[in-house]
Structures are given as C-alpha cells and as structure tokens.
C-alpha cells in the first residue's frame, strides 16, 4: 500500500512486547489522533522483573479493556492499516498483540504490517509534537532499553545496519540488577536515577567497560559485578545512619560510568559514519541523566552532533512509535 498524494494515511499501532499494552492511531507518521497505554509495572514489581506468562495474561485483559473505549474514541476516523510490534520481545506477550492485530486486520480488511519495536524506537521523535525539527536520514540511532543496547546506522527506514550491540546484559537489565543489589525496587532505572540525585557520582571508582576497545559493542556484566563486589565488601562497614548516602553514592557512580560507556561508543560510531545526528530511543532514554551526560561528553570532546531524545512517554514501549515507523516503511514502497 503506497500513500497517494494529498491523501492521509491513518495507521493503528499495537504494542504488547513487554509490560505495556498500548494502542494508537497515527496520521501520516507524525500526528497522533489518539493513544492509550496501560502499564503492568506494578504487577511485576514483587517479582523483581517481568514474568512472561503473567505479562501475557495481563495483556489479554488490558487490550480488551482498552480496545472498547479506544475504538469508541476514534469513531469517524478511517484506519488504513494495522501495525503490530512483532517477533522481537517476550514471546507470550508478543503473541497477544499479533493475534489481536490479525483479527482486526481481517475484520477491517486492511493490510497488517509487522514491526520490529526495537528499531521503531527511533520514531519517538517523529510522533513527539514538541519537536518542530525532525531528524533526516541518514543518521545514527542509539537504542537503550531493558532488553537491547544497540548503535544502528540508519540509511533509510528500510535500510539499516547494527554497528554495535551489547555482548551480555542490556543496559536496562544492568540497572535492574544493580538496583536489586542496592536494595532498591523494580524497575531499577528510575530508582537509581532518583537516589543518585543525593549521591556523589565520583565517590566510587568503577571501570568503564571496553574503554580501550575499538569496537562499538557494549558490555555491562563486568560493571555490574564490580558494583556487587564493592557493595558486598563495603556495605556491612557502614553505620545505619549513613547507609542511605552509601547507596546514593554507589548508584550515582554506577549511573555515571554506565552512561559514559554509552557516550564513548556513540562517539566511535559518529566518527566512523560521519553523521551529525544522533537519535536516541528506548526506555533508558527517558533518563535525564543520560541526556545530560551525552550532551556534556560531546561538548567536552568538541563533537558537533544534533542530539534527538524524545519526551519520556515516547521513550518507553508505546504504540505510537509502532504506527509511526510503519508509516515510514510505507513511504519507501
């Protein structure tokens, strides 16, 4: 299906890959007509992470609950195609969205477009109406989430190459594990950012992973282990009165080192590609500290790059970016 001149295309996006159930109708890849998202974080928090089977059951319940009102709210709008986050994600959760999308596409007699939600994260900028200026292809994409950490060379929406990725833990996973070591609740990223505000980010000396490695790959397992070893050794020595400050210092130090690692690898990718635009997406991109460190790092290194980081709601899994990316794909047909 190719967009005709002067004819708008409304794509219905569906996202159920992890712990957010989301539906969105997006016009021409940038204008959100309506969107709804329901999070399962509170359901999974007692387990310290997402439980796939529980997640799938919650998606079934949530999508039925959201769907009725959603379609009532978009009544009168045409639906040109259905785009669903597919294949990549937690299989039981992904299958819920795929089944729902397949049934809708059949009922509405419209095309069904499967979307890799990891790649679609870069579309957060396109659907975020607070950004008047949008990136132009080609550009460097940086995906930082609970399941993925990747640097991607985007020549176009359909042509991209992964330049580097994590060799072990994804950055979001590392944050969750370090938070657990520090006695902080799930999800770890927001908790570490919160307690870090009271900490000294240089209080604990931690190794920056792969600092002298020429590749654009990431690694967080060694950093995570270094934090655990330090905490197990030093925490018992802390007086109860000062444990809160100890945790804040460790969290702040870990966060600084993890994000500096991201910045160093992004620098290598920018130099290799020659690109002047870096588009960031994924749940960890919602951290203001990451944005601050990227800005300050590039400024210190005198790297001229336009940094695009969407507002928090478009960093995490959501159906708007699924629909937005699908619209970009249709433009290429």
From TrEMBL:
InterPro entries: ATPase_NBD, Gcp-like_dom, KAE1/TsaD, TsaD. Its main location: cytoplasm. Transmembrane segments: none annotated. Signal peptide: none annotated. GO terms for cellular component: cytoplasm. GO terms for biological process: tRNA threonylcarbamoyladenosine modification. Substrate binds at residues 143-147, 176, 189, 193. It is an enzyme of class 2 (transferase). Binds 1 Fe(2+) ion per subunit. It is found in: Cytoplasm. Keywords: Acyltransferase, Cytoplasm, Iron, Metal-binding, Transferase, tRNA processing. Its cofactor is Fe(2+). Its EC number is 2.3.1.234. It catalyses: L-threonylcarbamoyladenylate + adenosine(37) in tRNA = N(6)-L-threonylcarbamoyladenosine(37) in tRNA + AMP + H(+). Residues 31-323 form the Gcp-like domain. It comes from the Bacteria. Pfam families: TsaD (PF00814). One of its GO terms (molecular function) is tRNA N(6)-L-threonylcarbamoyladenine synthase activity. Fe cation binds at residues 117, 121, 317. Required for the formation of a threonylcarbamoyl group on adenosine at position 37 (t(6)A37) in tRNAs that read codons beginning with adenine. Is involved in the transfer of the threonylcarbamoyl moiety of threonylcarbamoyl-AMP (TC-AMP) to the N6 group of A37, together with TsaE and TsaB. TsaD likely plays a direct catalytic role in this reaction. Belongs to the KAE1 / TsaD family. HAMAP family: TsaD. This is tRNA N6-adenosine threonylcarbamoyltransferase. It comes from Candidatus Dojkabacteria bacterium CG_4_10_14_0_2_um_filter_Dojkabacteria_WS6_41_15. The gene is tsaD.
């Amino acid at each position: 299906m190719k967009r005709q001149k002067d004819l708008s295309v409304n794509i219905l996006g569906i996202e159920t890959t992890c712990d957010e159930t989301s539906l969105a109708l997006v016009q021409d890849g940038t204008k959100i007509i309506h969107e709804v998202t329901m999070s399962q974080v509170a359901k999974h928090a007692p387990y310290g992470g997402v439980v796939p089977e529980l997640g799938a059951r919650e998606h079934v319940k949530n999508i039925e609950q959201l769907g009725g009102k959603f379609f009532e709210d978009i009544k009168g709008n045409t639906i040109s195609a259905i785009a669903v986050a597919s294949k990549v994600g937690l299989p039981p959760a992904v299958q819920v969205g795929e089944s729902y999308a397949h049934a809708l596409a059949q009922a509405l007699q419209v095309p069904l477009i499967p979307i890799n939600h990891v790649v679609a994260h870069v579309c957060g900028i396109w659907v975020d109406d607070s950004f008047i200026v949008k990136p132009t292809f080609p550009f460097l994409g940086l995906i930082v989430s609970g399941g993925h950490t990747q640097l991607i060379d985007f020549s176009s929406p359909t042509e991209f190459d992964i330049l580097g990725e994590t060799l072990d833990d994804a950055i979001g996973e590392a944050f969750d594990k370090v938070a657990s070591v520090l006695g902080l609740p799930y999800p770890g990223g927001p908790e570490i950012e919160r307690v870090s505000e009271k900490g000294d980010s240089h209080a604990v000396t931690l190794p920056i992973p792969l600092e002298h490695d020429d590749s654009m790959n990431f690694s967080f397992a060694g950093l995570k282990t270094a934090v655990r070893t330090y905490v197990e050794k030093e925490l018992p020595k802390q007086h109860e009165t000062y444990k809160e400050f100890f945790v804040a210092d460790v969290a702040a130090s870990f966060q600084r080192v993890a994000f500096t690692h991201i910045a160093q690898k992004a620098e290598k990718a920018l130099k290799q590609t020659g690109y002047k635009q870096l588009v960031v997406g994924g749940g960890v991109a919602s951290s203001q500290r990451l944005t601050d460190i990227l800005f300050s790092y590039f400024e210190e290194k005198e790297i001229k790059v336009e940094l695009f980081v969407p507002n928090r709601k478009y960093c995490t899994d959501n159906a708007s970016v699924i629909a937005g990316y699908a619209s970009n794909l249709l433009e290429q047909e």
